[in-house]
Each structure stands twice: as structure tokens, then as C-alpha cells.
Design a protein that fits this description.
Blueprint lengths: L2 H5 L3 H5 L11 H4 L12 H8 L10 H5 L6 H9 L3 H9 L5 H7 L5 H5 L11 H15 L14 E5 L3 H12 L3 E5 L8 H4 L8 H14 L2 E3 L10 H6 L5 E4 L5 E2 L12 E3 H5 L23 E5 L2 H13 L4 E6 L10 H9 L3 E4 L1 E7 L9 E12 L5 E5 L5 E4 L2 E4 L3 E2 L3 H5 L25 E3 L2 H4 L4 H20 L2
Length: 479
């Protein structure tokens, strides 16, 4: 932006402008199918929302807060002027999947909360604008393949085709390296396909991106679980990889450790979410193509985005009473508050300060039909910084259920540490890395994303992928 134009901005008047609300399909319509719920901005709405930006002096808080360093201020200026393609190019310069981040980054995401207008409840909806301009470019003119550096003769194996792995794949392919991505699922995309429901992120966008990467020269090897089919050392010694990036995420589900947890119709959240509707049938493994049909009364245990996704999926399957039970209050509840509100609008209930202590099979058929619950109160903060839930003596009660879905946490696949000599891991199998480079205790192996940090946001995984990709390139070229 030219300095004289910036000086002409009346920040005080702009700060008075009201937010342009993001449009969603009606509650009645969207709760009946698995199509995307958001409608998104029109061109006029995107321009009006961007025109509320007061263009802070350097350093710009939203840019500093973005894990990818997106030049959000410059992009908003382009959008305000109607230069949608220019804005899209600004986003793509730092983010390989802006149309995806624009959909799945929550209102509480790093850039949005740091907008100075957020203190007044008027933060710029940077995510919706990012999605609009990247969609516009993709649909109107397409996204050209970048010019690639000459081949280096080096080969990189990427384990995991989720957000971090896709970033590393694109960066290193452009740098001239041969890139092969291995993934255990039938299609690349990781949690973008198999962890985020279709009503939040249409799978066609992910497929477009992975097809684009194939055109760039990235190779995908699917239905291959590294650590079982091949080890990391096999990739080096037999497949000729000069470096490896681990982006395997955190897909091993936590459990509660309470009696009756092994009863029938007690489902893990990912087991439940990975089914037709949320994932196109052709992308599912053969054993998962039959939907898990839930009954009339569904209980979801836990908090966060996965619990909310399960609530909304059950509603779309026709459950009549869908209740989330969370042992703390909403203040401590992780996840996207907007999505949580949408779940409640669609008919879900959230009961705070309560948790199950036993799953019950009262009729003896091997399936859960009730839960014994206990009410909680908050005590002193625990290691997470949140106030610890404390059971209230004598407060137990029972609730009848037809199905229970557990959304109580995720951890990395322990196979990486168990099958890779000298690869240092820590609690729950998290991979130990250098925070700046993603390099592990094995110099040729790098890692980033949820398998390092535990479950986090897509943009955080992309940021880790960016740092690792730069470090891998330097490692391979000796720079």
C-alpha cells in the first residue's frame, strides 16, 4: 500500500463500522444433509469487511500472530479495492491451502484474536475473506503451477498426507527435490479428509489440491502404513530417501478407563466420524463404507471440535436427543465457539460439569443402554492451566442412551518411535524435535504437526511444516 494512501485512512471512522456477518445455510436446511454449512461472502461483502481494516502501523499484530506469516494487511487492502486475484496471490505466497484455512481456522485462531478491533468485538473476519479470494482465483482463472528449480537428485519421503505433509511436499517439490508422500488412508489429505466432516470442509477442495500437487510432480503412495508395511529405515535404505518428514498427526484415540467402556455401541469419535456422509464413499477403506447408524438418544463425551463434529453428525443421522457431557464449564472448553453454537442451533444440548463414571448394560445384550454420571465442581488449576474438575460426592445419577461417542483426546501413532532406532519420543509417543527446524534425534528425519505438539489447529501444523521444509532443503543442499 502506498504510504500516502495509508495516511489518508480515517482509522477512527473505520473502527466504528459494523462487522459484515458471514452467512450460513438455514438451520433447518443444513441439519438435514452433509453439505457445507457456510455460504461465505459475496464479492461486495468481502470488500465491505476488508474495508473495516484500520491498517495498523508496523508490526501488524495479525501478521505477527499468523503461524504462516500471511501478509493479511496487504491482502485486505487488495480485497477492499476489488483486486481479489492480487489478494489470493498474497495468501498463496505463504499458505499452500488458503481456501482450506479460510474454512477451518476458528474465530479463536491466532490471527483473528490479535486484530486490535477484536477488543471491541469487531475483529476482521480474515478467515472468510481468505476463503473467498482463494475460491475466486481457483474458479475464475485457476492456480498456475510454480516454476520448479532444476532437479537436485535428492529424494524426500513424507509420512502422512495431512496439512503439514502437504506443505512440505509442495515446498520441496518446487525446490527441485523428488517427493514421495506415504499415507495409510486410501486418499491423501489426512485429517482434512478423514478428520474434518464434510459439512465443515467439502472434500472436493482437498482433492483439487492433491491433484494439483500431482501435476507439480509430487507422488502419493496410499494404503501404506509406515511402521508396519515399511519402516522409516526401509524408506532410507530400500527406497532411497535422503531425508524424511513425519507428519503423521495424532490419530490414536484416548480412552476414559471406566467400567463398561468396551460395551457395544460405545464408539470412538474418529471411528464414528469416518463414514459416508462425512467422507465420500469412494475415499473410504472397504471396511468403513457402511455407516455407523446411531439410535434415538446419543451421548458425546468430551469437549472441543471433535465432540462438536460428532454432535452435528448424529443430528444429521436423525438422532432425536443428542447431548454432549463435559466435565468443566464452557469457559474451559476448547474448540470453536461458533461451531458449538451452530450445534446447539441444530438441536444439540451441552451439559457442563458432568462426566460418566460407568457405562451400563442393564438388559444384558452386550450394548450400552445407560450411563452412570457424576456432577463436578471446579477446583484449583491443573497442569493445563485450567481449573481441575472435582467430583461432587453424592451427586451421581443415570441417563439412558442408545449410543455413546467418546471424544476424549488423541495421541500420535506410537509405531514411529517403536520401529525407528534412536528416534527420541516423549510422553504418549510425541516426537521430540528442534523447535526451529523440526529436526529429530535422527539428523535425516524431521517432524512437525500434531505428532509433535498433540492436537492443534491446521495453521499451526502448516507453520511447523514450513519450518521443517526450509530446514530439510538446507539439509539436502548443504546450505
Amino acid at each position: 500500500m502506498a504510504s500516502n494512501e495509508k495516511k489518508a485512512i480515517n482509522r477512527k471512522e473505520r473502527s466504528k463500522l459494523e462487522k459484515v456477518p458471514l452467512r450460513y445455510r438455514s438451520t433447518d436446511e443444513r441439519s438435514r444433509d452433509f453439505e457445507e454449512t457456510r455460504v461465505g461472502y459475496t464479492a461486495e461483502e468481502a470488500m465491505a469487511e476488508a474495508a473495516r481494516c484500520i491498517h495498523c502501523p508496523e508490526p501488524v499484530a495479525c501478521v505477527v500472530a499468523c503461524p504462516l506469516g500471511n501478509d493479511i494487511e496487504a491482502a485486505l487492502w487488495c480485497v477492499e479495492k476489488g483486486d481479489f486475484l492480487g489478494a489470493a496471490e498474497i495468501y498463496r505466497a505463504t499458505n499452500p491451502i488458503p481456501e482450506i484455512c479460510g474454512r477451518v481456522c476458528p474465530d479463536e485462531s491466532s490471527c483473528a484474536t490479535k486484530c486490535v478491533l477484536a477488543k471491541r468485538g469487531k475483529g476482521i473476519n480474515t478467515q472468510a475473506i481468505e476463503a473467498f479470494v482463494s475460491d475466486y482465483q481457483r474458479k475464475e482463472v485457476g492456480v498456475a503451477l510454480p516454476e520448479k528449480a532444476p532437479p537436485t537428485g535428492k529424494k524426500v519421503g513424507i509420512v502422512g498426507a495431512g496439512p503439514a505433509g502437504l506443505f512440505v511436499a509442495e515446498y520441496l517439490a518446487v525446490a527441485g527435490h523428488r517427493v514421495v508422500v506415504y499415507d495409510a488412508w486410501p486418499a491423501p489429505g489426512g485429517l482434512l479428509v478423514y478428520g474434518i466432516p464434510n459439512f465443515k470442509l467439502g472434500k472436493g477442495i482437498v482433492r483439487w489440491k492433491t491433484d494439483w500437487l500431482r501435476e507439480l510432480g509430487v507422488e502419493f503412495v496410499t494404503n501404506t502404513r509406515i511402521g508396519k508395511t515399511l519402516t522409516l529405515d526401509d524408506l532410507i535404505e530400500k527406497e532411497g530417501c535422503d531425508a524424511i518428514f513425519l507428519g503423521t498427526g495424532a490419530g490414536v484415540e484416548g480412552t476414559m478407563g471406566i467400567p463398561g467402556e468396551d460395551l457395544g455401541r460405545v464408539h470412538g469419535s474418529m471411528q464414528y466420524l469416518v463414514q459416508p456422509g462425512n467422507v465420500p464413499e469412494e475415499l473410504l477403506p472397504e471396511g468403513k463404507r457402511e455407516p455407523i447408524q446411531v439410535g434415538r438418544r446419543v451421548a458425546v463425551i468430551g469437549g472441543g471440535d471433535t465432540a462438536t463434529d460428532c454432535l452435528r453428525t448424529a443430528i444429521r443421522q436423525g438422532a432425536e436427543k443428542v447431548v454432549c457431557y463435559y466435565r468443566r464449564t464452557e469457559v474451559e472448553m476448547p474448540g470453536n465457539a461458533t461451531e458449538r453454537r451452530h450445534a446447539e442451533e441444530e438441536g444439540a444440548e451441552i451439559h457442563y460439569l458432568t462426566a460418566p463414571v460407568e457405562m451400563l448394560d442393564r438388559d444384558g445384550d452386550g450394548n450400552v443402554d445407560a450411563m452412570r454420571m457424576i456432577r463436578m465442581e471446579l477446583g484449583e488449576p491443573d497442569s493445563s492451566g485450567r481449573r481441575r474438575p472435582v467430583p461432587i460426592e453424592g451427586s451421581e445419577y443415570q441417563v439412558e442412551v442408545d449410543d455413546v461417542i467418546l471424544a476424549v483426546g488423541f495421541w500420535p501413532d506410537p509405531l514411529m518411535g517403536e520401529t525407528t532406532p534412536d528416534l527420541e519420543t516423549r510422553k504418549w509417543g510425541l516426537v521430540v524435535v528442534d523447535e526451529e527446524t523440526g529436526q529429530t534425534s535422527r539428523p535425516e528425519i524431521f517432524a512437525g504437526g500434531d505428532n509433535v505438539t498433540g492436537p492443534a489447529l491446521v495453521n499451526t501444523a502448516l507453520g511447523a511444516g514450513k519450518r521443517a521444509a526450509q530446514a530439510i532443503d538446507k539439509y539436502l543442499t548443504g546450505k
